[in-house]
Amino acid sequence: MLKDALPKINTPLPGPKARAVIERRSNAMPGAIRCSYPCVISRGEGAMLEDVDGNIFLDWVGGVGVLNVGYSHPELIAAVKDQSEKFFHAMMNIVTHEGYIRLAEKMNRIVPVRNKKRRTMFANSGAEAIENAVKIAKSYTGRPNIIVFSGAFHGRTLLASAMTAKKAYAYGLGPFPDGVYRAEFPYLYRGPKGYSEAEAIDYYADKLGKIFEEASPAQHVAAIVLEPVQGEGGFIPAPLEWVKAVRKLCDAHGILLVADEVQTGFARSGKMFVSNYWEETGCAPDIIAAAKSIAGGIPLSAVTAGEDIFDGVKGGIIGGTYGGNPLACASALKVIEIIEREQLCARSLEIAEKCRSTFALWMEKYPEIGDVRGIGCMMGIEFVTDKESKTPAPELVSDIIQLAVQNGLIIESAGAYSNVIRFLCPLVVTDPQLDCGLKILESAIEACVAGK
């Protein structure tokens, strides 16, 4: 079966059938939506995909964090098929469907926002979840401004683009919405030189407090929005001690703390959400936005907040035609069931332990590996020209990615400098597949480092 297979490349890439489809793509689609890899998928199972030429790839990108339970899980197929035979669509502003209610009830039980009395609404994408979280925070607090961070990625809609740090995602799209202010995220690898970790965390906490003096008074800030692990920003985890400081600052000024768990959620961190770690130390967020792996590939996103917060939202501000689509809700309920039953949080930690120990050995072996970081098996490897200067090495990363895919491993870059290789492998990957992927990746690193 494909889900148990190992990578196998039979043709030069792209193969003849894939090349023909990619040529059609160039004529039918805008070039701004880039084709990153020389393959055209025909089917996928588990962590593996097969292209139209019969080449088999191990996918360590997983639709950028969408496929935590893997491709084509048979139980998801059955759940969606069963729902499709009843009805495809029911808009919750018009008629209630129970799938939405069942999923909201489940989310209210498992999403670790501060208030134990919770409510959940659904949308379609991560960007929509973030936009709704901000609207909810503003409506509840009656305040106009939000604080976001360097390195942040929150989506490609207009507000989300304004919130996103890397302006390559929003070049020439202004003017942007007002009231979005940016603080410095604790990127410890590139933090103040000579500081200990504790000193660096204090430094970043102090910098955040300066926003109230130099950008927006605290009484005008509705929410502070952050990713528990920055995704596009380079897989940079928010240090727990810094999160505690942010929570304390929010509480002192009546500001809501919003966790963007679009990429981090649903078992990748070793818990259902990274915010579970926050909750254990008394700094749970007020609002959590989730998406990506929530429904195994069917478009769905969620915003969960305390009952008091949703009760403060004015009518008409939130909602939408497709939010909580019945097919997506059926899939999401099954995804959560699979994660819990198959103990994918624990599996995430097993995968992380193997990868982290391997990456640590590589870090000693290759001067070009400057940092290895992450939470659970949401990990990044940062490549530099040398450890002393820490100069980013994006060309090296690009070469590694292209060589790896030629040998059947699909990986992707991240980071402000595109010099981080991200690890987003489906959590259902087998041990032989994981071992094979590590061998392919190290071979690619070794060859590309030697060829610099």
Automatic annotation (TrEMBL):
<dbReference type="InterPro" id="IPR015422">
    <property type="entry name" value="PyrdxlP-dep_Trfase_small"/>
</dbReference>
<dbReference type="GO" id="GO:0047298">
    <property type="term" value="F:(S)-3-amino-2-methylpropionate transaminase activity"/>
</dbReference>
<keyword id="KW-0808">Transferase</keyword>
<dbReference type="InterPro" id="IPR015421">
    <property type="entry name" value="PyrdxlP-dep_Trfase_major"/>
</dbReference>
<protein>
    <recommendedName>
        <fullName>(S)-3-amino-2-methylpropionate transaminase</fullName>
        <ecNumber>2.6.1.19</ecNumber>
        <ecNumber>2.6.1.22</ecNumber>
    </recommendedName>
</protein>
<dbReference type="InterPro" id="IPR015424">
    <property type="entry name" value="PyrdxlP-dep_Trfase"/>
</dbReference>
<comment type="similarity">
    <text>Belongs to the class-III pyridoxal-phosphate-dependent aminotransferase family.</text>
</comment>
<comment type="pathway">
    <text>Amino-acid degradation; 4-aminobutanoate degradation.</text>
</comment>
<dbReference type="Pfam" id="PF00202">
    <property type="entry name" value="Aminotran_3"/>
</dbReference>
<dbReference type="InterPro" id="IPR005814">
    <property type="entry name" value="Aminotrans_3"/>
</dbReference>
<dbReference type="GO" id="GO:0034386">
    <property type="term" value="F:4-aminobutyrate:2-oxoglutarate transaminase activity"/>
</dbReference>
<keyword id="KW-0032">Aminotransferase</keyword>
<dbReference type="GO" id="GO:0042802">
    <property type="term" value="F:identical protein binding"/>
</dbReference>
<dbReference type="InterPro" id="IPR049704">
    <property type="entry name" value="Aminotrans_3_PPA_site"/>
</dbReference>
<dbReference type="GO" id="GO:0030170">
    <property type="term" value="F:pyridoxal phosphate binding"/>
</dbReference>
<keyword id="KW-0663">Pyridoxal phosphate</keyword>
<dbReference type="InterPro" id="IPR050103">
    <property type="entry name" value="Class-III_PLP-dep_AT"/>
</dbReference>
